[in-house]
Amino acid sequence: MWKQKACTSQVAETLKILVNHILKSTYAFASPESSALEHEIHFVLLFSRQGKLRLQKWFITLPEKEKKKITREIVQIILARNPKMSSFVDWKDLKLVYKRYASLYFCCATEDQDNELLTLEIVHRYVELLDRYFGNVCELDIIFNFEKAYFILDEFLMGGEIQETSKKSAVKAIEDADMLQETMEEYMSKPAF
Predict the structure, then answer these.
(1) What's the DSSP call for residue 192?
(2) How far, in Å, CA of 3 to CA of 36, rounded?
(3) Complete edge-to-edge strand list for the sheet that includes strand 88-91
(4) Predicted confidence band at 161 (pLDDT cuts at 50, 70, 90)?
(5) pLDDT of 108 above 90
(6) What count of other Cβ atoms lies within 10 Å of the Cβ of residue 9?
(7) How confident is the model at residue 168 (pLDDT cuts 50, 70, 90)?
(8) What is the CA radius of gyration of the chain?
(9) Which residue in 31, 61, 113, 150 has its CB near the most CB atoms, within 10 A?
(10) For the whole prediction, is pTM greater than 0.90?
(11) Which residue has the higher pLDDT, 1 or 170?
């Protein structure tokens, strides 16, 4: 029994290392000429089971009215789906990839030909970063600390593509920014003579 548990944990650790390696190699060597390796996300939406939008990040330029219309339509489509259905939805000329964590849905829109599993891994990595920063992240953390959730997303994704694959590096950058903010607040609160 002990050998089986040790073997299972070794397999899990090996899989984590392999996924990290794949993510790093996919994005480290992607260049404008190698469009086969590009994986661009058009937008990220976080919304509750009640359909309340909690976070949105757009990597494409659209008028606000169009963004609201798209958001409303996507939220309705995803909330109407059965939990046992696939987490991938073909929508217009895009592919929606979503995952529900507790009471929040995390949804990304990518090109139709992009890898859905890679997008699902990106969503999962963002949730892991949120968990690492907030402890055990919940909807209230996103509501009351939305600026931190946006900052974490900005550290992770830039222009719809992965910027940082290392959880440690991303969390360290976020903690450094928190430290800088605290130092500045402390400095600004001291009276000037």
Answers:
(1) P
(2) 42
(3) 53-58, 41-48, 104-111, 94-101, 88-91
(4) confident
(5) yes
(6) 10
(7) confident
(8) 19
(9) 150
(10) no
(11) 170
What does residue 27 show for φ and ψ, rounded to 5 degrees? -95, -20
- Say how far apart CA 116 and CA 108 lie, in whole Å: 10
Cα(149)–Cα(169) distance, integer angstroms:
16
Task: State the Cα–Cα distance between residues 23 and 118, nearest whole angstrom.
Answer: 8
Distance in angstroms (rounded) separating the CA atoms of residues 68 and 6 = 50
What distance in Å separates the CA atoms of residue 114 and residue 86, rounded to the nearest whole number?
Answer: 16
Give residues with Cβ within 8 angstroms of 139, minimum separation 6: 48, 54, 102, 103, 104
9: its two tokens? 């944990």
With a CB cutoff of 8 Å and minimum separation 6, the contacts of 32 are none
CA distance 122 to 52: 22
- The whole-number average pLDDT for the span 179-192 is 82
What pairs with residue 91 in β-bridges? Answer: 94
Closest to 164 in 3D by CA, of 178, 154, 150, 149:
154
Cα separation, 37 vs 193, whole angstroms: 57
Residue 124, pLDDT score: 94
Q: Residue 173 has what pLDDT?
A: 87
Quote the strand ranges of 50-182, DSSP E: 53-58, 88-91, 94-101, 104-111, 157-158, 161-162
Both tokens of 109, joined, read 């829109």
Arithmetic mean of pLDDT, 38-46: 87
Pairing of strands 104-111, 41-48: antiparallel
